[in-house]
Specification:
Layout: H1 3-6, E1 13-17, H2 22-33, E2 37-42, H3 47-55, E3 60-64, H4 72-84, E4 89-92, H5 107-135, E5 139-144, H6 157-177, E6 182-189, H7 198-202, H8 204-213, H9 226-233, E7 244-247
Parallel strand pairs: 1-2, 1-4, 2-3, 4-5, 5-6, 6-7
Helix pairs in contact: 2-3, 2-9, 5-6
Bound molecules: NADP nicotinamide-adenine-dinucleotide phosphate (NAP).
NADP nicotinamide-adenine-dinucleotide phosphate binds near residues 43, 189 and 195.
């Protein structure tokens, strides 16, 4: 297989959580452009993403599920199998952030973030690993971590806890599942222009301070995720295990 062909995803089925918007939308389009059929998971319609994928000639199915409820796991696995008959790639992209001073942070702000960003990432990955082992051909799991997998952040303690756990979990799952030809890796986006950072970008002082610190001198975009997600979803990364790849315009290099 030529190295360019190793990046192709023809015949693969990719499931992307939080596919309706932001980075999940960008990664869904990228996976479809590389040849995968995409199952978008979201708590509301993925109509815009479906249109973008289909405009490029790709196939897209939607599964509506709220990841704050553990019953979503069966809905997602069964929905993906019903749509395309198998699964090969899981992108654990859905996530939320709650901003509040650590001194005032509430239990709900803690639990709601940990549930979706951490607990669901583990148990949905576990369900996919079981399915990959049953199918007998391995598979890919790609977690979406953060700069706050490395750093502490300000006013986002539950988010930092969940994304720091994401980097540890990526390694822990890799250690037990690599022997089944399951690659567990992650992408750590830097500061990206999506809903997640709308509040931060609307604060001109914070926004300017962030851009000043990014060597590339700009916020990232969903398009910036495309190369990394296709690489980690493809045979080109078959011997890459347990690694978190930063897509951050150089933020971590400072
Ligand atoms: P976003 O536009 O806010 O997207 C987050 C996605 O997660 C949305 O699709 C959202 O659905 C979904 N989601 C949240 N809670 C959910 C739930 N209970 N059930 C189902 N779906 C749920 O932000 P984004 O930047 O694209 O974020 C994508 C991932 O990248 C997240 O894990 C985020 O932490 C991570 N990340 C983002 C940045 C950044 O700078 N933007 C940096 C590092 C990491 P709704 O649209 O319905 O809310």
């Amino acid at each position: 297989m030529s190295i360019i062909d190793a990046f192709r995803l023809d015949g693969k089925v990719a499931v992307v959580t939080g596919a309706n918007t932001g980075l999940g939308q960008g990664m869904s389009v990228a996976l479809a452009q590389a040849g995968a059929k995409v199952v978008g998971v979201a708590r509301r319609s993925c109509e815009d993403t479906k249109k973008l994928v289909e405009a490029d000639g790709g196939e897209f199915a939607e599964v509506i599920a709220d990841l704050s409820d553990m019953s979503a796991i069966d809905v997602i696995v069964n929905g993906a199998l019903a749509a395309f008959g198998k699964v090969d790639i899981l992108v654990n992209n859905a996530g939320l952030i709650k901003r509040n001073d650590a001194i005032d942070f509430t239990e709900d702000e803690w639990d709601s973030v940990i549930q979706v960003n951490q607990k669901m990432v583990f148990f949905l990955s576990q369900a996919f690993a079981k399915q990959y082992i049953k199918q007998g051909h391995g598979g890919k799991i790609i977690n979406i971590n953060s700069m706050l997998s490395y750093q502490g952040g300000i006013r986002v303690p539950s988010y930092t806890a969940s994304k720091s756990a994401g980097m540890g979990l990526t390694k822990a799952m890799c250690n037990e599942w690599a022997c089944h030809n399951i690659n567990v890796n992650a992408i750590a986006p830097g500061y990206m222009a999506t809903n997640n950072t709308a509040q931060l970008r609307s604060d001109s002082d914070r926004s300017e301070a962030i851009i000043d610190r990014i060597p590339a001198g700009r916020w990232g975009t969903p398009d910036d995720m495309k190369g990394a997600v296709v690489f980690l979803a493809s045979a080109a990364s078959d011997y890459v295990n347990g690694f978190t790849l930063a897509v951050d315009g150089g933020w971590l290099a400072r």
